[in-house]
Amino acid sequence: MIWNPEAECMPVEQRRRLQLAHLKNLVERVYEKVPFYRKKFQQAGIKPKDIRSLEDIQKIPFTTKDELRETYPYGLLAVPEAEIEEVHMSSGTTGTPVVDAYTKKDIEVWSESMARTLSMAGTTRNDIIQNAYGYGLFTGGLGVHYGAKLIGANIIPMSSGNTSKQILVMRDFKTTILTCTPSYSLFLAEAAKEEGVDIRSLSLKAGCFGAEPWSENMRKEIEEKLGLDAYDIYGLTEITGPGVSSECEMKNGLHINEDFFYPEVIDPETGNVLPDGAKGELVFTTLVKEGTPLLRYRTRDITFLFHDQCPCGRTTVKMHRLFGRTDDMLIIRGVNVFPSQIEQILMAVEGTDPHYLIVVDRGASHLDELEIMVEVESKFFTDETKGLETIRSKIEHEIKSKLGISAKIKLVEPKTIERSIGKAKRVIDKRKI
Amino acid sequence: MIIKQISIFLENVAGRLAEVTKLLAKHEINLRAMTIADTADFGILRIVVDQPDKALKVLRDGGFTAKTTEVLAVEVEDRPGGLAKVMEIFQQNHVNIEYLYVSLEKNKDKAVVIFKVEDLKLGQKIVEEHGLGGKVSL
Fold first, then answer.
1. Considering A264, A299, A327, which residue would you say is the last residue of a domain?
2. CATH code (residue A116)
3. CB proximity B67 to A under 8 Å
4. Alpha helix locations (H) across A152-242?
5. Mean of the per-residue pLDDT values for chain B?
6. Chain B CB contacts of A375 below 8 Å
7. DSSP state at residue A261
8. First-to-last CA distance in chain A?
9. Which residues contact A305 (CB under 8 A, 6 or more apart)?
10. Which residues of A10-45 are buried (b: 16+ CB within 10 A; e: fewer)?
11. Tens-digit pLDDT profile for residues A272-304
12. Which of A383, A413, A416 is opposite residue B67, by nearest beta carbon?
């Protein structure tokens, strides 16, 4: 079902006029209110009045994640602080968080986006949504929550983990819509089986899965094992959280809520805008955002855009499911992790430049498993096992507390990790996604 | 007396110990004592050899993580109660033991036991005072 036919099925030309009006307003606002953007405009030699068409957006310089870190916490704020009603953040490359600050209206836009997303998966006010995305600074939990509230569905705020209770609630409260990471859905299916619950025979009809990369094969597996329709949803904290784009019942590309989030795909090397169908880096401009607006934000996600006449009736542009990233960011159980963050922790613990290798795999549990192989150097080697065990548990603890993920540390002999010429190979991703 | 022990980090991989012994044999280094402390993923091999400095170099050149630790070599009478006597002396004098193992060395009817103690100076003092380490030559 379509949550907002007027917006989602609007004739393309009419939407473009709307987008342009939003863009002009946005540019005026940030030029006036955010010194960071004013400086950028001045350096590029442009003024707000130079943005006269949607194509003129290409005159505006990109915004990067590094810049978001540099302006932490409130450098991009375009409203008085008192207008901010909620803050979310995700970790950046150095551990400096990337902040999204929402005004009342920003939360409304987010709720609207998520209402559209959940509706695409068939959610109505009669549904029971079991939300197993984490509640907290992570946008997954509250994003789904706000969308569900707007629809008027029954939302069960489970948050992540607590698997036995998830299954209990799913059975006893007759959950119809499941929201979580795709890998966790498979984990739930396995756990249900072990507890003697036939998850297929419960009331599940659809699932909105995102926050980590997955594939068509994985969709088939999820649909088979859980007995539901699995939908891909996409979003990132910087832009708003989940709700940026999602699949309709055709399961052929993700409809972008482009009246809010204006997409472009660029060549990551040259920065040139690419046409429909050409793979490149996804870039977003938050057309209506008040709190922390972003102009041409480089997501580092690789995809292509396409316009088709979707049988669902929506006229919004679509993006293909993600192909990967232009940087080395890993998404582990929905948590963004850069190898450089792990390296910093290793260096801090050992006080040395370690040779390490990160191995990511999905074991029998279907959940991402992270193993970090660290070469034992003479500097921190001791003649007692407890010395090494202490270092190992310290690294595990630091990774858990700083990055929020569990890692298994494996101590290995020197030179066992392959040395390569030039850029060291630090990551082996064995996940079949 | 205080002697040098060499510790070597070993992953739990088939054949790693054999490579250590092969390397030592090639360089004609004689093993006098050895023990392994193991965990699920790795082990630490501790050895006492006739040429510790050469052994350390050979092992490091061979790509092993190795280091030297000072330990006590203590004479223990090879009869029931022999070790008990030494342990009692250590206990009475607050010499805390991290680990111990037996060497191949033997002086007449006395066995030589390798002790890693928490406080090496204290341990050495007690060993000397009680005449437990005078004749060991590893």
1. A327
2. 3.40.50.12780
3. yes
4. 163-172, 182-194, 216-226
5. 91
6. 65
7. E
8. 29
9. A256, A263, A264, A265, A276, A277, A317, A318, A319
10. beeeebeebbbebbbebbebbbebbebbeebbeeee
11. 999 999 999 999 999 999 999 999 999 999 999
12. A383
Last residue of a domain, one of A270, A301, A327: A327
Question: What pLDDT, on the 0 to 100 scale, is given for residue A93?
Answer: 47
Domains of chain B, with CATH numbers? 2-69 (3.30.2130.10), 70-129 (3.30.70.260)
**Residues A224, A75 share a domain:** yes
Amino acid at A410: K
- In chain B, the residue whose alpha carbon lies closest to the alpha carbon of A409 is B41
Note which residues in 15-44 of chain B have CB less than 8 A from chain A. Answer: 16, 37-39, 41-44
Residues A268 and A404 in one domain: no
Question: In this complex, do A381 and B7 lie within 8 Å of one another by their Cβ atoms?
Answer: yes
Domains in chain A, number: 2
Order of strands, sheet of A297-303, starting from the edge strand that comes earlier in the sequence: A261-266, A280-286, A297-303, A324-325
A393 touching B (Cβ < 8 Å):
no
Residues 76-135 of chain B with CB under 8 A from chain A are 98-99, 116
> The domain spanning residue A339 has which CATH number?
3.30.300.30
> Which residues form the domain of A128?
1-327
Instruction: List the single residue in A377, A383, A389 with the smallest CB-CB distance to B7.
Output: A383
Whether A382 contacts chain B with CB within 8 A: yes
Pairing of strands A128-131, A177-180: parallel
- State the average pLDDT for chain A: 92
Which residue ranges of chain B lie beneath pLDDT 50?
A: none
One-letter amino acid for residue B98 of the chain: E
Tell me the pLDDT band of A341, cut-offs 50, 70 and 90.
confident
> What confidence score (pLDDT) does residue A21 get?
98
Pairing of strands A97-103, A84-91: antiparallel
Chain B residues touching A385 at Cβ < 8 A: 37-39, 42-44
pLDDT in tens, A236-253: 999 999 999 999 999 999
